[in-house]
Amino acid sequence: MNEIGCTFCRIGSEDPWDQVFYSDDHSVAFLDLAPATLGHSLVIPRRHSADIFSVGEAEFAAVGRAVHRVARRLEDRLHPDGLSIFQSNRAAGWQDVFHLHVHLLPRYVGDGLTPPWTETSEQVNEISGLAASLR
């Protein structure tokens, strides 16, 4: 963790705000300083990588294992009613800190959070054609 000017690299290496609560050889988890819910956490890789397109499968799998461990810890300690997990890439994908990260938001009945998108009414044949192009 050494990308100059990267806030997440700084948190992962220095923990300046005492928010890190999990780390392993590949990943670090910390509480969000502007939480959407109680326990809102982020998991990042130790190596600075801008987004999912900048890491290999093994490195992303290591982040995924940390996400699972953090999810279990949030469940055991905070007892939320649910859990939402988000991972965004690039500005158009709502990424605002350009160090790969996964948000874990413990959810509570009545927490007021709503999905950030609305459903579209795609026709079945359009979806089928898109699926075919992705195969």
From TrEMBL:
GO molecular function, one term: catalytic activity
Residues of the HIT domain: 7-114
Catalytic residues identified in the record: H101 (tele-amp-histidine intermediate)
Gene Ontology terms describing biological process: nucleotide metabolic process
InterPro entries: Histidine_triad_HIT, HIT-like, HIT-like_sf
Motif (Histidine triad motif): 99-103
Record protein name field: Histidine triad (HIT) family protein
